[in-house]
Amino acid sequence: MNLLRFLPSLLMGLGLLGCGQSEGPSVTTPLQPVVVASAPAAKTEIALVMKTLTNPFFVEMEKGARRAEKELGIKLTVKTAAQETSIEQQIQLVEDLIADKVSAIVIAPGDSQRLVPALKKAQDAGIKIVNIDNRLDADAVKQAGMPPVPFISVDNEAGAYKAGKFLTQGITTPTQAAILEGIRSADNAQQRTNGARRALTENKNIKLVASETANWKIDEAYDVTKQMFGKYPNIKLVFASNDIMAIGVIKYLQENRKVNVLVAGYDALDEAIVEIKARKMVATIDQQASEQGYQGVALALRLTQGSTVPAITTIDTRLVTAASLSASSPGQ
What's the rounded Cα separation, in Å, for the pair 286 and 266? Predict the structure, then answer.
């Protein structure tokens, strides 16, 4: 048998077996690149740590920070302690944020010294720090080995001086005055006390008979005012280092029928504006809390981007009186 005669058919059959049950020519489809949808870039997380939200000043500060969150496209986390004196709680909040690995912390510290070790730990973890409202103690920062921390606030001494100077206008006879201080270990409280004291004592007719802390609290201010007037019943001028304490003073004066006592505060809270319009309070200082919150977040974002920022950013203070309120609201 001539096998060569069957060779073409054999080779064709083997070819079909090799191709399986294909009914046509085999076509190799080139592999297409796999398109993976890229996840949106994670937003920079910045935390705002405040003393409390029981004080309307910090409510306004958060509003400014929220405006920055929206405009700058960051993720904002807001943490607050229960009270302005809850320093240990604020320290724990910083510790928690370190564990959460936020990119930056903007802090209004309740104490100028005791928060420093926790903030140093945050810096060591690569977290950027911005200090607003109440300045961290420069010596404590240096001793902790921290690089300087950018600070945003107002000139508290100058603001309190404005309010104190307004209190002294027209005082031409011997007059007793008193100051209600904030937390004494807080730099802003110290500066406000200094400014008010300077303004009051520049008038030789005024004698500063009492200067006591009420720790920023309304109830404590009421009690301290009661003690002051118990010892010095002829006090006619009172400067309170924040509006919350000023309202505590006014409450005491009203309940005890104390008249012709001039009270000035600090913060320009809505409640204080009401008291000024009612002529129960003569002045307060607007330190633009919302702007502090906004600028704090904006500065923190710049730090996370590697930008150089100012060491100190000062926001203007404004004296608020019945006259200035009338001027800004014509026709009312």
Answer: 7
Residues sharing a CB contact under 8 Å with residue 170, sequence separation 6 or more, in sequence order = none
CB atoms within 10 A of CB 10: 10
Q: How far is residue 166's CA from residue 85's CA, in Å, rounded to a whole number?
A: 30
Q: How far, in Å, CA of 172 to CA of 282, rounded?
A: 18
d(CA 56, CA 61): 9
Total residue count of the chain as it appears in this document: 332
Task: Go through the domains of the chain in sequence order and give each one's CATH number.
Answer: 45-153+289-315 (3.40.50.2300), 156-286 (3.40.50.2300)
Q: Note the pLDDT tens digit of each residue in 118-177.
A: 999 999 999 999 999 999 999 999 999 999 999 999 999 999 999 999 999 999 999 999
Q: Which residues of 164-182 are buried (b: 16+ CB within 10 A; e: fewer)?
A: bbbbbeebeeebbbbbbbb
Residue 307: Cβ-neighbour burial (10 angstroms; 0-12, 13-18, 19+): exposed
pTM, full prediction: 0.81
Q: Where are the alpha helices (DSSP H) in the chain?
A: 7-19, 56-72, 87-100, 116-124, 138-143, 156-168, 187-202, 218-231, 243-255, 270-277, 289-304, 322-328
